[in-house]
Amino acid sequence: MRIVLASLALLLAMAAPTPAADYFVKNGGTDAADGLSLASAWATLGHAASVVNPGDVVHVQDGSYQEFYLDRSGTTAQPITFVADGAAVQITADNGMTPDGINVEGADHVVIDGFIVNDRTRAGIRVAVASFVTVRNCHTGHNGRWGIFSGHAYDFTIEDNEAHDSVAEHGIYVSNSGDRPIIRGNVVHDNHANGIHMNGDLSQGEDGIISNALVERNVIYGNGVGGGSGINMDGVTDSVVQNNLLYDNHASGISLYMIDGATGSTNNLVVNNTIVNAADGRWCVNINNGSTGNHVLNNILYDFHPFRGVITIDDSSRTGFVSDYNSVMSRFSIDAGDTVISLAAWQALGYDAHSFLATPADLFVTPGSDFHLSPTSPAIDAGTAASAPANDLEDAPRPVGAGVDLGAYERQLDHCGDGSIDSGEQCGEPGLTCGDPCTHCSGCTCIANALVCGDALVCGNEQCEVDGDCAPGEACNACACVNAPACASGITIAKPGLGLRAMPFALRTSGQAVVPKPWQGVDPVANGVRVVVDAIAGAGGLDVTIPGGAIVNYVGWSLNRAGTTWTYRDRAGTHGGVTKVVVKNRPARTDGLLSWSITGKSASALVLPDVSAVRSTVVLGSAAECASLAWNPPGAPRPRCQGTPAKLACR
Length: 651
Prior knowledge:
Distance between the termini: 57 Å
Helix content: under 10%
Number of helices: 5
């Protein structure tokens, strides 16, 4: 027994995680020390990178350092962090493995914070084959190809950095199908090609698409003498570009297209950006190569080029394109910039009905240097609240006043908080409060609270907080009123199938589920079976209970000799048109596994549920002995439904 206990104690000790530590690196330190204090600091970042574990923080003191290659991972709760403790922590040589200053490769959950990485052979900071890496507060300048680069990096956050004067290419480059990047709060300027470039890179493997990117609150200027865009998007989908200031760029402003991506850049939102192109620039917004479904809203667009203008789009990209509530000039193109049309001709095509013409002198405090809106700017209150971000480039509230302002900056009230009530102020002064509990005071304006489902307040597009907020027969689910479910067991139907016809009525449905034992009511001969096909929300569907009871006059249930298969037959379809039900107990495969098939047919008619919100439920015993499935809508991954108001086919 002593031997067993000793062995168990040893195993537990080996399995216990090593406590996270704070380590220190400084010039003049020694890698032979323990690194746990400034007095015993290590000398090199390379040594630190070779030993860190989840939760460790490496504090780097001012000085110059040689190499930094990290291939060790943290965790969601305990990332590995390398942080510059001073303002002058410099990487002055390439790491020993790649021609980059800092290289994070094959590592997840890492934070790189506050380093200066200039004059490196290729990238200042490179992140590859990684996920959940953050690079922030870093300075990358005059690097050979890129300031900050990523390849095959997912959930990569790049925030509050400066990336400038890249010699050959871009300031920030996100490549190789890396989904969900966040590029926020960076100053990106004077790079040879693009300021920010995102490229799906189908030729490099994976799906060739970057999806769900967020590009916001960046200041981007002076880029593109070698071509490119302030923000370049090749094969980027379902992403948001908002609150960015782009000025004096020498090529395009924002480009959505396809060259190396698997598709055009589709279904993106370009909202509340200020784009003022240089005289040698191209178009402010450039959309080509099948880049469909993009929305361009609440932007300020101006181009100092003698004949190029604000928006160019080719014919292959016009499907689903929406552009409105922008400050523009009267130069557009529908053939990729080959010819120019006026605002009136552009509006005749259905675009920019609420947009207007304005110059920088009309719009800004100091055109060319201060792009805040002047007190008389026509961009004030001229936008749409739909899709507008809740804060502006400086993280100040939006809207302030009667509506959303155009561009990256929301004009704030000049006299907020001075103790007197001035025009436009709604709160924040003596005697002014927000009466609506769904709002709060910010910048002397009442603005909507962030929606919090479960806070007991029904706000914004929320329909409910509790079931009592909904109509009879409905339940509150995630703050939306839905049809009350017939099943609340949490068991999902596996191997589902459903076919349903409205007129004449026909039904075929099948599936299986593991219903935990001991069973309380699973006995179809005694208790029957209930089948429900309805919509998560809305009308239509069926709810049929086939009662228990042995066969009488060819109608009812039977049980096979093995006691594993229950069969119901009724040619007349007395109960909701159901003519046959087969339920099988399959303990040889999995204890508690039940499978079923249900068919029905009658001359009556049925209103079908909405094809985009179909739900199937089978109750096999007691109220808790049930299984349900919310089908995905058409075009979504399986299990999904296809069909019309006359016929559904789901599998």
